Each structure stands twice: as C-alpha cells, then as structure tokens.
Amino acid sequence: APLLSSKLLRAQINACLAICIAEPERVAQAMEKLLFSRHAVHRLEAAFILGYVPGEESAATLHRVAVADSSHPVRVQAIKSLVRQPPLLAAGRLLAVVDAGDPATAGLAARAIGELGVNGSSEVVTELCKREAGAPPEIRGALLRSVGSLSGILPTRQSMALLIERASDTHPDVAIGALEGMKHLGDQLPSTDLSHCDRNLHPGIRVL
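Above: the chain sequence. Below: its structure as tokens.
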C-alpha cells in the first residue's frame, strides 16, 4: 500500500486502518516511525492506530508511550488504545502505567482497567487491591472503581471487604470511588454491610 509512505498524515492513517487486520506487522512498523515524530499529532494518531493492532509488541509500545511521551493527549490516547488490546495483555500494561505514570495518567489507567472485562479478573483485582492502599487518594478512588467493575460478576471476599471498608474513608475521593465500585456488586452485598456504610459515610458525601 503506497499510501503507508504518503507525506499526508490522514492518507497514512486511512491506509493503516484499511490493512491493520490483514497486515498488522506493516502497520506496526509504519506507526513506530510516526511515534518518533516531533509533532504530537503524529504520535497521537500512531497511538490510536496501534489500538487496532493486537499483540505483545503493540501493547509494549503503547505502554512506553503512555508512560514516557512528553504530550499528555498522546499519553491519554495510548491508554485508550491499550483498552482495545486483548484484555489480559492490556491489564498488565495498564497496571504498569499506574505504577510508573504521572498522577493524571495513572488515574486514567486505573479507571481504564475497569473497562476491560477481564477473564480471570480475580488476579487483576488482587493486583488492584495491592496498589490501592499506598496510592494518592484520587488514584485510590479510581482503583476502587475498577475493583468493583471487575468484581461485578464474581466478587471475592477481598474485593467486597475492601470496598465496604473504603466507603467509610475520611477522604471523599476514596469513599466515592468505593461507593461507585459497590454499585457494580448490586444485590451481592449483604444489607448489613450497606447499613454499616450508610452510618459511616463521609459527611460531605451525604450532600452529593
């Protein structure tokens, strides 16, 4: 496809979208070149395309962009594209972004994990719970939302206990994150636990 080497960015992008399933390696090579462009819009488009090229190499590249690119919009696009990767592959990379990214990027990655619908999500939930206690409050809230989202079908004792405890946290970001996570559990939460949460809610949350 000659358009892959076109000087027109839009022509390159359209060509990549047209062949990304049939020729993923060619697309990945073309996008790798764009990711070294000094123009943020070129790197953003490349990160967008890599979301449609599933595989270890694409996921690794998107992780690198999400952590290290100098442009916040490019890092955000890399996280969005990671969500399009195979769920178990994406989960590990997004957890690594939570560990290594700047606070804003880490929060986005923490929320994105909840969108994956991961098979075998109990392992991912365990990793989210490990990171929650030591994270800044706003990231803790995002992690708790994802704990609830991934626990919605088969909640574990660990995830339910954590969400119930954090719903009474003194920091509103943490408490709201836990409550939003609990919404995914529905009727699986015992009524006695819900009553406990209601009695111990942060005062500011009652107004929300």
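The radius of gyration is 20 Å.
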